[in-house]
Every structure is written in structure tokens, then in C-alpha cells.
Amino acid sequence: EVLLVESGGGLVKPGGSVRLSCAASGFTFSSYHMNWVRQAPGKGLEWVSSLSSNTGFIYHADSLKARITISRDNAKNSLYLKVSDLRAEDTAVYYCARSWAATDAFDVWGQGTVVTVSS
Amino acid sequence: SFVLTQPPSMSVAPGQTATITCGGNNIGSKSVHWYQQRPDQAPRLVVFDDVDRPSGIPERFSGSNSDNTATLTISRVEAVDEADYYCQVWDSSDDHSVFGGGTKLTVL
Q1: What is the mean pLDDT of residues A15-19?
Q2: A50 in B contact zone (CB under 8 Å)
Q3: CA-based, 20 to 30 A from A23: which of A31, A43, A50, A74?
Q4: CA distance B77 to chain A (A)
């Protein structure tokens, strides 16, 4: 079964940082482009960042690019997202999703991990 | 940056057809993907590359894309189709992925 499982969310104070993980199984992780998408409470989907299979290409949303780092470890079948200088507006469910290329659809999604930024 | 415009909400009776639009400047030149998100669930891909369906998606779901509007059509709507629907494209001018604001479909 193809699975993506996010972890690392929780309650974080403003100004802090969080490192999210996404564990992949059931497919050849190293062959796929990977993505992060977030969804604030009651809001729509917001693309955050994308990373090519060999880490050669990285793309970030303009609103976040100064504060985020996306990375992957193909040996561990894992994707990561670090968000720094957290603000209340970063409170959201963070999803990882798979695509064949940056231009392609996100065909597999994880269940999401919740990040809450509050003092 | 590229903007995708969706109606915030729409309602349809069971058995009828729902047509959800996604507007964007010359969107017909891009590949459009559509996602369904039921309450408290992760998004699920229902149409990719304008018109294709992933395996397991009913034939009732279809897509089209031309000029400035892409459309997701759900025929013979069922109660289980009640969800939020999002369109998405890749904007090659700035190498960003873009989602529409989403459309909440209510089945009466």
C-alpha cells in the first residue's frame, strides 16, 4: 500500500521553529518529486514547497521562502520541512504529497500533521 | 503570480449535475488538476491533466479546460460527493504551484 505519514506537529510558541517529517512507504520514494501543502483552520489549500527526486530542484512559496527549508533523505524514504520564526498565521494542517514531477498532480497525500502556533 | 478563481459554494440535488469552474488567465494553456476534500479528510485527486481520472475515481467525474476556464463536472451527484473541491496548476512563469480558493459543494 502506498502511504505517506506526517509527524512532528504540535504546539509551538511564536518565534520558534518546527521540523516536520513525512515517512513514505509502498513505492520507490527516490523516483518521485515531493511536496508540502498546508491548510489553515477553515481555509483552503496553500502550496508551501516542492523538491525534486534528486534534490536538484527546490521551489518555495514566496510568502514562506525566507523561513522554510525542505529536504529529503532517500535512504530513509523521508521528506522534511523546517519552518522557522513561526507566527500565528502558520497554524495549519501540513500535508505532504507525491507527484511525478513539479508540474504534475499530487496523486498521493498523507493524513497531515497539525502545527499550532500560540503562546 | 497566477490566480485561480473558484466560486466559494454551490448546491445541487442528488442525481443532478454539478459544474465547478476554475478561472484563470489563459488557463487553457496549462494542465489543471482537481482535488476533492471531504470534511476532516486529506485531499484526494479526482481529475488530472484536465481530463484524466485516477484509478478508482468514478466515471461520473470529468474535466475540461479551454481558454480562461477549467471545469470539473460531477454527473449523477450523490450524497458522498459533498465536499470541498480545489483546482490546481503549475505556473511555469515563476515555478510555483497554485491552488484555487476551493468550492464547497452541498448536496441538497
Answers
A1: 97
A2: yes
A3: A43
A4: 23
